[in-house]
Amino acid sequence: MAVSFRARICDFFLIYLLICVLSRYEVTSDRTSLKIYQSLQADCFCFKRLNGTHEFGCSSDRTGNVGVVHVVSSVADVQHIIKDGPDMKYVAVLGMSFFNMGNMTLLQDSGRVSGVIVIRDRALPAEGFSPDQSCPNRNMGMYEEDADYASCATGNWNPQNPALNMFFVHWHFPIFMLDNETSIDVIVNKCYGTFNRHQTTNKALCAAQLKSRMSAAKDSITCLRRSNIASTLHPVRYCDPLSGRNIISTLYPTYNNKTVDNRSVIIVGARMDTFSLFDNIAPGADSSVTGFVTLLSVARLLKLMSGNAEPVPPKNVLFAIFNGEAFDYIGSSRIVYDMEKGQFPAVPVTSGLAPATLGLHHISRFVEIGQVAPHTPDVYLHVDPLSTKDAKTKASVSQLVADLKAAASKDWAKLTVHDVSSTLPLPPSSVQRFLKKDKNIAAVYISNHNSSFENRYYNSMFDTVENINGTAATLGDVAEHLTKLAAVVASTVYKELTGTEPTDVPLQKLRVKELLECYVVNASCALFHEVLDREATRPLKSNPLSLYISVDPTGSMIHPSARLTKLVLSYFTGTVVENVSRRNCSSHTVLDKVYEFDWMDGPESNSTGLCVKSSTTFTLARSPAFESEDVTIEEYSTWTESVWEEASLQIFVMPSWKQEITTLTLGVVIFLISLALVHVVNSEAAILFTPRALLFRLHLATFMFGPFIIDSL
């Protein structure tokens, strides 16, 4: 027993010395990982989204997908990966000229690809690049049950291009995009160029690990059901409904104690959102920005032309910027749903003043501004062939078209405006959701295209400032075109309101160029700084805002693009409240439900700030399909976004087959020697573990580890 006790004391001392040595040199897994892996840019990756029937996008295995890096610079490289090269897993590195549906389908079908890295080129692909469908939102518009127009029967709106439908595919591997020059150099030259260019299985190869694990699977209905089941025991979310905010404002305030006449409201609308295949990239320069920038300018012009009219005209204007329209009309569907429920713009209050409740029967006209970048100088007016079968509606639409064309011919405009054939349906547009429920609304959709999009980068990462024929230095031409178009719409709406032509159209007071700069060039722009409260917000980034609708799991998140756009619309349509401090400004909103009050920094000439009062507000842009079990998924959007773990992209050197065999063999040999040594020591334990032997082991340990202990002290 004495010997055993002494042996334990000695072993404890040896373990203590070993721990001290390891602590001294901080041998940690993180340090080891840094020596093996090199991390690259990982903020732009494909993620998974789902609808009521399918899942789309990308996901990795839980621990990430690993493959040998191979840069594709020719068709032969594609063949090397899918068939001709060694039988192993590859990570294909594609330039934009090779990133297309044809190559991506080949890579997926081969079963030899574990991931794709896309090298972004700032130049626009000559053949176009739109990952949306040829008939966007085909299942949720007003024509899906009409034999003549369903599924773009008269022709596709989105022309053929190399990326068509890429967004609507379930990719079985992760896809990352690199636009950081350092990361591109590392993956192309230091990784592939050094190790893999002359690829053999007899030498070390550079491999990549792509990790973007998604939690959602199958479809939105299944995913949300799993989340609801899990929440009863443990709060786990697998996906969230796409959700954001619509932005609305009335030219004149409405009150719940005053009747709003039927067919007395004119809607001027535009969509706000867009998407792309990758997270954090959704510029939407022509897909959405040109439309809602023109709408913001229309609102500013009408405010300047109408002023504080007394008495208030019997008609009113509702400005509406819809969010989530790229995903089966989420925003417009929700507004129509709320109108039918008698809950627009908010649930009615039982006491006190509040905005009047509006319904579909209040709407007389609907002017929607779509893609209007001047790819050509022409402007096109689209009308609905179904609602115009009614003689009264047709007469109203014809008058609206005539007024728009008359305004466009004025000396201050000189725009070339064309009627689109009455046999064509409306393009993908928010107004379709209104006409689906009420065909008595006279609607016109304004665009820069006839029977198919001029925008070859619709809903893609390439829908940037370059796509709208502009750069930071040459936005003036685009701004001039949009200014004239805004004036045409404002002049027409003013005539609808008052019955008279405007006496003055102050184009010089519009700030279209500044708006374009803010949304497609630099979000840290002067106009955005004017509408923000500097003390209550973080500094803006210099890159353009993402216009993807995103998700709102807490119910209180407002996307920066929506918040800034709401403030700009408030700034353009509101009035300044004099002699109000920053603290008192926000308290007015609690007392006055008709208006909202926002504190803004104002122009540079104002050193104290402004309290702006306006009727501009948010409404929820979340599909009605998620609000009630009575709502069918066939009627409304069911888009959700997967929850994901932190994404990462790393490269490392993978040993050759011979090195792995050598390492394995050496390990087996050492293991066998250790077994033999343990057997010998165990058989001679009575001799080896005498008190003298224990003393010798203690002296030996002190000799070996003593200097390290002293050094650490």
TrEMBL record:
<feature type="signal peptide">
    <location>
        <begin position="1"/>
        <end position="29"/>
    </location>
</feature>
<dbReference type="GO" id="GO:0007220">
    <property type="term" value="P:Notch receptor processing"/>
</dbReference>
<dbReference type="InterPro" id="IPR008710">
    <property type="entry name" value="Nicastrin"/>
</dbReference>
<feature type="transmembrane region" description="Helical">
    <location>
        <begin position="661"/>
        <end position="681"/>
    </location>
</feature>
<dbReference type="GO" id="GO:0016485">
    <property type="term" value="P:protein processing"/>
</dbReference>
<keyword id="KW-0472">Membrane</keyword>
<dbReference type="Pfam" id="PF18266">
    <property type="entry name" value="Ncstrn_small"/>
</dbReference>
<comment type="similarity">
    <text>Belongs to the nicastrin family.</text>
</comment>
<feature type="domain" description="Nicastrin small lobe">
    <location>
        <begin position="46"/>
        <end position="216"/>
    </location>
</feature>
<protein>
    <recommendedName>
        <fullName>Nicastrin</fullName>
    </recommendedName>
</protein>
<keyword id="KW-0732">Signal</keyword>
<dbReference type="GO" id="GO:0007219">
    <property type="term" value="P:Notch signaling pathway"/>
</dbReference>
<dbReference type="GO" id="GO:0005886">
    <property type="term" value="C:plasma membrane"/>
</dbReference>
<dbReference type="Pfam" id="PF05450">
    <property type="entry name" value="Nicastrin"/>
</dbReference>
<keyword id="KW-0812">Transmembrane</keyword>
<keyword id="KW-0914">Notch signaling pathway</keyword>
<dbReference type="InterPro" id="IPR041084">
    <property type="entry name" value="Ncstrn_small"/>
</dbReference>
<feature type="transmembrane region" description="Helical">
    <location>
        <begin position="693"/>
        <end position="710"/>
    </location>
</feature>
<keyword id="KW-0325">Glycoprotein</keyword>
<keyword id="KW-1133">Transmembrane helix</keyword>
